[in-house]
Input
Amino acid sequence: MCLAYNNLGRTYEKMNQKSKAMSEYRAALRKCPSNYAEPHFHLAKLLQQRGMEGARAHFQKCVEIQPDSSLAERCRQYLQVQ
Output
């Protein structure tokens, strides 16, 4: 179900329904809190765009979960910008 919630979040994001997207990313993280990096990345980007707290923690979790992945590299880039 983690993948389904993440993909639904991506769909809402593309439809410019950011609040719904954030809810779906959070649902994905409730289902898979410690082993699925992608919703951390997408949620962090939306939090950062909205000036909300928590983005940095999600970018860091993304790196922690998959440290050798290209997604982790993207998360590191966002951490350097903050």
